[in-house]
C-alpha cells in the first residue's frame, strides 16, 4: 500500500518538475538566485540548474514506473542513491550532525525494500 502511494507521489513530482525546469530555462537572465551559498544571477548558472533538475526528473520517472511495476532494479537504484549520498555527505560535509539522520533513513529504506517480507516478495522475480 505504501509503495503504491509513494509511486503516485513520485509521479506527481514527475509532473511538476518540468514546470520548475521551464521556469529556470526561461527566467530573465538577471534574476537573482543563491546557489551553494553564493548569490548570482540565473544567467550564469542556468545550464547547471536546468541539467540538474532534468537528471533528477529522469530518476523520479524511472523510480516511479519501477516501483509501480515492481521492477527489482528500481529498489536497488533507490537504496544505492541514498548510500552514495551518505558517503558524499560524510566526505564533503563540514557539519557531521546530518550523518546519523541520513544513516537512519538509509537503514530504514534498506529494511523496507529488502527485509520487509511483502515488499521483498513484490520485487522478487515471478
UniProtKB/TrEMBL annotation:
<feature type="transmembrane region" description="Helical">
    <location>
        <begin position="6"/>
        <end position="26"/>
    </location>
</feature>
<protein>
    <submittedName>
        <fullName>Uncharacterized protein</fullName>
    </submittedName>
</protein>
<feature type="transmembrane region" description="Helical">
    <location>
        <begin position="47"/>
        <end position="67"/>
    </location>
</feature>
<feature type="transmembrane region" description="Helical">
    <location>
        <begin position="73"/>
        <end position="91"/>
    </location>
</feature>
<feature type="transmembrane region" description="Helical">
    <location>
        <begin position="98"/>
        <end position="114"/>
    </location>
</feature>
<keyword id="KW-1133">Transmembrane helix</keyword>
<keyword id="KW-0472">Membrane</keyword>
<keyword id="KW-0812">Transmembrane</keyword>
Amino acid at each position: 500500500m505504501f509503495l503504491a502511494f509513494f509511486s503516485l507521489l513520485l509521479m506527481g513530482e514527475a509532473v511538476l518538475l518540468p514546470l520548475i525546469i521551464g521556469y529556470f530555462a526561461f527566467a530573465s537572465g538577471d534574476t537573482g538566485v543563491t546557489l551553494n551559498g553564493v548569490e548570482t544571477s540565473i544567467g550564469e548558472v542556468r545550464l547547471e540548474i536546468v541539467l540538474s533538475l532534468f537528471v533528477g526528473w529522469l530518476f523520479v520517472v524511472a523510480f516511479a514506473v519501477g516501483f509501480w511495476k515492481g521492477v527489482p532494479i528500481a529498489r536497488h537504484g533507490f537504496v544505492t542513491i541514498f548510500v552514495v549520498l551518505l558517503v558524499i555527505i560524510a566526505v564533503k560535509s563540514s557539519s557531521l550532525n546530518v550523518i546519523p539522520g541520513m544513516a537512519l533513513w538509509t537503514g530504514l529504506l534498506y529494511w523496507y525494500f529488502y527485509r520487509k517480507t511483502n515488499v521483498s516478495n513484490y520485487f522478487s522475480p515471478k
